[in-house]
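Handout, page 2. Input:
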Amino acid sequence: MAIQLLDPAQHDDRALRGLTQVVLAGLAVLLAGLWWVQVASRRTYQSQQEIQAVRTVRIPAVRGRILDRNGVVLADSQPSFNLGLYLEELSPEFRAEYARLRPVQVVSQAGLSRFLGRSTVVTQAVRLSRADLDQLQWTARIRVASNAVVRLGRLLGQSLPFDPERFRRHYLEQLALPFPVAMNLQPEHVARLAEAGDLPPGADLEVLPLRLYPHQATASHLIGYLVRDDRSVEGEDAYYSYRLPDYRGAVGIEAGFDRELRGRAGAKSVLVNNLGYKQSERVWNPAVPGWDVVLTVDLRVQKAAEQALLRVGAQVRAAVVALDVTTGDVLALASLPAPNPNHFVLGFPPGEYDRMRDPQLRPQINRATQEHYAPGSILKPLVALAALDCGLDPRARFTVQPDPARPDRGCIYVGRRKIRDTAPPGEYDLRRALIRSSNSYFVHWGLQPGVVERLVQLGTQLGLGQRIGLPTRQEAPGVFPSLAEVRSPGWRDGDTANLCIGQGPVAVTPLQMALVFAALANGGHLLEPRLVDRLETSEGQFSRVVRRFPAGQIRRTVTLRPDHLRELHSAMLADTEDPEGTGRAAALPGFRVCGKTGTAQVMDAQGRLRGYTTWFVGFAPYERPRFVVAVMVEDGGSGGSTCAPVAREVFRALQQTGAAPDQELAMNLAG
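Output:
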């Protein structure tokens, strides 16, 4: 049987044609939809897809100011204009540079050539490893970014550094933040950028607070300095994706009042895409500025103290403390050499960092409070009070014997040990012994029954060998024997002799001795030294006091007989006014100074004389004491020749400022 084959082309099937048309129409709709989604709407979907995450950024608060007692600014925060590159705006250039750098090869397409009837070649990318591709991307990014930095440098008229490794770290860790190009631009540089019309993509100025110290190294030990610290403090959110540069106080007032000065950090959210580039940002928690700290220091007195020390020598190692004897206000606290706190924020100039590490200069040490020294003869006023309390007649004469080796100088023997004297041989009462600073006289009376025990009792009550509790984190307690030590079998007369001339088991700070002499001046009240007067917050053009620190706080009152104090004051006045006085260079017309000089030996580890520590401590005016000044100079000539002239200049500044003590406090202390 023959089979008849149907020719589909000749077969008329309306249903099949309809079905075919429906299928083709559906395919057309599907293709049109695909075109709309993948081509026409590609940018919209791609933009939505790229928005992937939110990053949080910690915004440091503007740090509060530090001011002197008269409102002069000692530390301030000013706007710093920093030039940066937002790398998300450079991403098209990154891709273009990557495409340009990637190697390609020419490939002949034989099949296509036969179809077209002519020779055809195309280029295609060379196959590279993943590591090679990554390295190529980094090369492209670094070239684009470095070229942008070079262009910005030309606009600023200076060469700007570019560190590829720093750029890499920033890209990996802080991509949503601008890459720092130049920090703390000068006003003329900001003007050039504002006028330029061809800035590289992504270049922008960011304003951040910058800590500045307008008086450079003046009072820098008291003020302190900052170190970089972006961590959250108590009361802030602990977690942030990024942290803008922030600082905390390391020492000084900056450290002791860091929480008050630092304020409260703010926060902003940064919307980033899947590549980590910033899309937008919003501040959702504004930063709260810190409080101002108003000190008791008078900048005029502080500068006078530092300038007087510098006249001793450019590399002088010394300290000055000036106090109000009725309130305890610290009017000057100087230590030289001193660091410039601006360098801890802006960077150290060449050679300065090595100077900071000099083992002899040690600029970071606060010699007024942080280093202790043998007091030498400035301890003799306490020895005098102890002897008076134990029955010394201030008019009684004691004969100082001549030193056989130096007949023009005196000496005293304790056992078989000879203690040399700088005073000449002859007869001495209390007044002459103090003004000539006779070692023999004070050793003799210090060895009398009960005197050393009373001396130790007085020194302990007046704070020697004890921490004061300063907020500056720069304090040494010093060294002073206890009653148990001086009563122990191991204590010898030689130890008592050393103690009575300010040598041996005793070491003090200049601030401690200033407080001791303040107590001698005000009748026996050991005051709390007051460094800070108040905390303020700025509200527009006005300031509001947040907290005030009371003046005249008494740590303890030491019982001192008024008649003994009168004898002591009279002898200390003679030290600066009598022709024989060792402190004559501290005398100031119209402002009578009571004082005492001191020169203490400094021994090395082998017991050999290494140098001298020189002192002058005094108070003025004699008739109604208002101020006390303590001066210490390492390796000075003598207390009278080196330190007394410095004290005179500080007293002169105190006299000229006219800073009167609180009259009510003065009456309370006197009563």
